[in-house]
Fold this protein.
Amino acid sequence: MKCTKCGYENKDDALYCGMCMEPFRKKSPPAWDAPEWSQAGKINPPSAGEEVLASSWVWCLSAFVISFFITPKFRLIWFPFRFVKVFAHEMGHTVIMWLFGHFAIPAVNPVDTGGVAISLSYTPSFCVFLLLVIAALTFFYRKYKGVILAGISVALVYGLLAFTPAKDWLISAGGILGEYILAGVCLYLCLFKTKFQSGLVAAERLLYGIIGWHVIIEGLEFLFKLKSDRAFYNSYVSGSSWQAGMTGDLAKIAFDINYRFSMNSFDSIVNIFIALAFVPLIILAIIIFRKMGQKGS
């Protein structure tokens, strides 16, 4: 080894120069890379999203138990969730009424938690205006793939709904659809929300879960009671009952179909809405399986 300072030739394993005593800096050996097989047993810590999903399951199941066994037995606990459910029901009516030219407002009775969507006026020209808006948006974005076909399809479907009896059926069904949308949104927030402004993560997650499960459980209980209890069915179709915020909605659809097509469709309509009650749960299950698939990959 040649000394860089004085040029003296030293032994290869020398630690310093034998002439000028200049220390030699040894190169550190290259870092040893662990072979791939040594990483096989490594367990990655769960991500924040996985931890949130794991803990939120506890609150979601707790909310189901509370909604199924506790809230129906205590009116003071049941009342606020019922009020939220009925408000969502009337908002569902109101939104669809506005969509088809009925300018309406929702109203909920805080005493008996009944509700109604009050139609202030009906303006068919509003439907024509919306069709023109659809046509304008289709023309403006026509360069994008599929926009023209989508615009024509939306215009045809909206036109058929807006100027046929199907509009009234959809308005009557809008209340129940509003409830199901509320249930799906609340259960999604219970399971997947990660940022809570209040800081009360557990309480807020539990609250979302109770609202979502309350809507689904009470709605299904009402629909199955219509199928199994003849006295309740008779009071419902006669308009003398006020239950689950859906008084008369299903009966209106069934009576109009019976009048126009001479067919008894009430049981079929009830079955359709029973099936629709599971749609939010199916969508949530798909989201959960997709997240689990992403975790596995």
